[in-house]
Write a structure and sequence with these properties.
Blueprint lengths: L4 H6 L3 E3 H6 L4 H9 L4 E4 L2 E3 L7 H14 L16 E3 L1 H9 L10 E6 L10 E6 L2 H4 E2 L6 E2 L1 H11 L3 H13 L5 H9 L7 H13 L3 H12 L8 E8 L2 E9 L2 E5 L8 H16 L3 E5 L1 H6 L1 H14 L14 H5 L1
Parallel strand pairs: 5-6, 11-12
Antiparallel strand pairs: 1-3, 2-3, 4-5, 7-8, 9-10, 10-11
Protein name: AbiEi antitoxin N-terminal domain-containing protein
Organism: Nocardioides eburneiflavus
């Protein structure tokens, strides 16, 4: 057992049969360790050094070691930093990088293998066959995992809706493990990615600090379909704090579209409130709308904006169709 301790220490107490044999132990030695409960089988050819519940990181190690050393077509020589290996993928790769407490530990462990491999996954493991594993994986960390920008992009691309994709990007950048620029570079290599143009625009907004995607979403999802009055866009205004550009201006009513997916600092949030205070000092009132209100709840947002504008003398808007949430808000 002493021969195995360095490997066990590096891998959270998890080890593969091939690693055991690589330390000079024979098959009968491994069987003896299992009988004595020094090692407990987890998957075929993968063991842990205790009999209790597994931590998330132990589950992750077990999944990677299993997938690295199993193939339904051939017996591989073992995990290594090329297409024959395996690495944590998507949300599992992000969880490993974030550490405990930042993400949920539930759900199967996602593992990436090379596209030409065939691995039959046991319960608790989801296999993803992908391309370019040798350059997209951090092989020097434990367990090996996809680079954070790649993993975050995989999560964003797998979401069911645009707002969920935006949220995935927001969480990735907010965690400081990647940047919008690095995610842009990763996305540029994926010519057939779903919603590629939308994500390119969102990432460009995040990288540049602008909100053009959100402005377009407000126009096409909130204002135009619901017959709201068309305001003047990007109106230059001089304030006591300097020159600013108002997103939408309707006489004394301003609509500001918060294109940032999160506030990096208290100073940035303070600048937003200062901008609104400047508008109030100039006799203008501000409605500040976020991604969730414009993209996630456009109909109810339109109804509420219309109620505000009606009180200021603007004509009322209208529902955009039979399934519009407008009536429930207006009532």
């Amino acid at each position: 057992m002493e021969e195995l301790r360095p490997v066990l220490a590096q891998q959270a107490g998890v080890i593969s049969r091939r690693q055991v044999e690589g330390r000079g132990l024979a098959p009968h030695d491994l069987r003896r360790l299992v009988r004595r409960r020094d090692l407990t089988p987890l998957f075929s050819g993968v063991y842990v050094d205790h009999t209790g519940p597994l931590s998330w990181i132990q589950q992750a190690w077990a999944a990677v070691l299993f997938c690295a050393s199993h193939d339904t077509r051939r017996r591989l020589e073992g995990p290594r930093a090329d297409q024959a290996g395996a690495a944590l993928y998507g949300a599992s790769a992000m969880r490993a990088a974030d550490g405990p407490g930042r993400r949920e530990d539930t759900g199967p462990i996602q593992v990436a293998v090379a596209r030409d491999r065939r691995v039959l996954a046991p319960a608790g493991i989801t296999i993803v066959r992908t391309f370019g594993l040798e350059t997209r994986v951090l092989w020097n960390v434990g367990p090996p995992r996809m680079r954070y920008d790649e993993a975050a992009l995989d999560v964003a691309l797998a979401t069911s809706g645009e707002l969920d994709a935006i949220g995935a990007i927001a969480r990735a950048v907010q965690g400081r493990h990647t940047t919008a620029e690095r995610m842009q570079e990763a996305l540029a290599l994926r010519r057939r990615a779903p919603r590629r143009e939308f994500l390119e625009a969102v990432l460009a907004d995040v990288a540049g600090g602008t909100c053009s995607v959100l402005e377009h979403a407000y126009l096409t999802r909130v204002e135009r379909p619901h017959g709201l009055p068309a305001g003047r866009r990007q109106v230059r205004a001089g304030t006591t704090s300097g020159v600013v550009y108002r997103d939408v201006a309707l006489r004394e009513r301003l609509i500001e579209l918060d294109g940032r997916l999160f506030h990096d600092t208290a100073e940035q949030r303070d600048r937003d409130f200062e901008r609104d205070l400047d508008a109030a000092a100039d006799g203008d009132a501000t409605l500040r709308l976020t991604w969730g209100q414009v993209v996630g709840r456009p109909c109810s947002t339109a109804a509420k904006v219309s109620l505000v504008l009606e009180r200021e003398g603007w004509p009322p808007g209208r529902p955009c169709g039979s399934g519009c949430a407008w009536p429930s808000v207006a009532a």
